[in-house]
Design a protein that fits this description.
The chain is an alpha/beta fold. It has one domain: Ribokinase (UDP-N-acetylmuramoyl-L-alanine:D-glutamate ligase). The strands form three sheets. An eight-stranded mixed β-sheet has the order 4-1-9-10-11-12-13-14, sandwiched between helices. Strands 3-2-7-8 form a four-stranded mixed β-sheet. It has a two-stranded parallel ribbon with strand order 5-6. Strand 9, helix 4 and strand 10 form a beta-alpha-beta unit. Helix 2 packs across helix 8, helix 5 packs across helix 6 and helix 8 runs antiparallel to helix 9. It is globular and about 55 Å long. 43% of the residues are buried.
Length: 304
């Protein structure tokens, strides 16, 4: 069985500046800012929430079906996924634009300056979930950060197709108002957020975490290295975190956790068991740079 993963696919450019931004940016001249940074370190990474979740689910031995919009410049990204055995038939190639791109420059104090170009992601709503074809063999879905219209339409399309799904608003949480969030939550079976997003979601909806959990089968609130909270029917359970062997880069840790959630839900696991695997996978991912450079053995994890 497969899991449809709606969300962004992006190409990230990571630049490393060996100094401090504060030494180059004069506060009294900020109104006419014109600076250039010498960045001897650079790397490109495959990213985007749907891309990272699909990669992680495949590492676990799952069958991801990423659903995203990319530009023609993503051919190597798609080739890579196909070689990994990831089905790319639901990824739309928009010839009119580029793949979503994020450029991130980091100084020696880990301050960051970033620019994000949505590109094809803005047209992801033109790639619908069809109840007849897209849903074949699909057990679960997820709405992860994507174009606003795509997230809204895909939530309703999952519901119409009878596919249970996880609502993972992430960094796109602010683009929906309270009534819109309440409507999407009413269509979803599960909601997952980090602790900051959880606070924002309660503010937006006017519902407490306990009240949100009464609208769905389960609400998961991740707490970084402290693990996560599971809310069901107004009650909370804490699942402890897993200590990482090394902490290098948190990029994609949340996406890896969500892949574990999908893996378990597809197999009928309890939320607690899903989250235990999610915490374990997050600890593995954080020891590697980038969202898609880590590996896991399903056998070593007791999954096969």
């Amino acid at each position: 069985m497969s899991a449809i993963i709606c969300g962004s696919m992006a190409i990230d450019t990571i630049l490393n500046f060996s100094g401090d931004f504060a030494e180059q940016i004069l506060a009294d001249q900020i109104h006419k800012l014109n600076v250039s940074f010498y960045v001897p370190g650079m790397r490109k990474e495959y990213g985007g929430c749907a891309g990272n979740i699909a990669y992680a689910l495949r590492q676990l031995g799952g069958e991801p079906l990423p659903m995203a919009a990319v530009g023609p410049d993503a051919s190597d990204y798609l080739d890579r996924f196909q070689k990994m055995g990831i089905d790319t038939r639901l990824i739309m190639v928009d010839d009119s634009t580029y793949t979503a791109l994020c450029t991130i420059m980091t100084d020696k104090s880990n301050n960051q300056i970033a620019g994000f170009h949505p590109g094809a992601m803005a047209n992801a709503h033109l790639n619908p979930i069809a109840a007849d074809e897209s849903a074949k063999g699909v057990k679960i879905g997820i709405i992860s950060p994507d174009g606003r219209d795509a997230m809204w339409q895909h939530a309703h399309q999952f519901h119409a197709a009878g596919i249970p799904f996880v609502f993972d608003p992430g960094q796109q949480l602010p683009v929906f108002n309270g009534q819109e969030h309440r409507e999407i939550i009413s269509l979803a079976q599960y909601v997952t957020v980090n602790d900051y997003e959880g606070a924002l979601l309660t503010e937006k909806t006017g519902w407490s975490l306990a009240e949100i959990s009464n609208q769905v089968q389960g609400l998961v609130v991740t707490l970084a290295d402290q693990g996560c909270e599971i809310w069901t029917q107004g009650s909370k359970v804490h699942v402890p975190g897993v200590k990482a062997t090394e902490v290098l880069d948190p990029t994609g840790c949340g996406d890896a956790f969500r892949a574990a959630l999908l893996f378990g839900l597809e197999r009928g696991w309890s939320l607690e068991r899903c989250c235990m695997l999610g915490n374990q996978i997050g600890a593995i991912k954080i020891a590697s740079r980038g969202g898609q450079n880590w590996t896991a053995s399903p056998a070593a994890l007791g999954l096969s």
